[in-house]
Amino acid sequence: MPRSVNSVASKAKRKKIMKHAKGFFGRRKNVWTVAKNAVEKAWNYAYDHRRAKKGDFRSLWIQRINAGVREHGMSYSVFMHSLAANDINLDRKVLADMAMNDPEAFKAIVMKVKK
Q1: DSSP character string of 39-93
Q2: 27 and 63 Cβ atoms separated by less than 8 Å
Q3: Quick one: which of 8, 16, 34, 90 has the fewest CB in 10 Å?
């Protein structure tokens, strides 16, 4: 019985990888084995960083809230504790946006919590 290799699927797989390697530098863009390794590593980084991005944004929101709250003589941790104690359910994303784009509304929240 003759050997079956399914070259159509093999070529399609190589073509897909080489398409993803377009724009890479040097042999990473046109040599199959090097391109395959580079693309797989890039996919791993992309997967990891899609998850890391969530923590990065959370820390950015915390920094923005902290900066906004310190203008009114409070620390971030005291502010967040006071929010919970006063049963104000705003998440960090919304609070950070208010601190940046609507300082009057943010000040009102801080003053309500300060009492």
Answers
A1: HHHHHHHHHHHHHHHHHHHHHHHHHHHHHHHHTTT--HHHHHHHHHHTT----HH
A2: no
A3: 8
> Which pLDDT tens digit goes with each residue over 46-100?
999 999 999 999 999 999 999 999 999 999 999 999 999 999 999 999 999 999 9
25: its two tokens: 């530098």
pTM for the model: 0.80
| Every domain of the chain and the residues it spans | 8-114
CATH class of 8-114: mainly alpha
Structural tokens at position 106: 């943010």
Task: State the average pLDDT for the chain.
Answer: 96
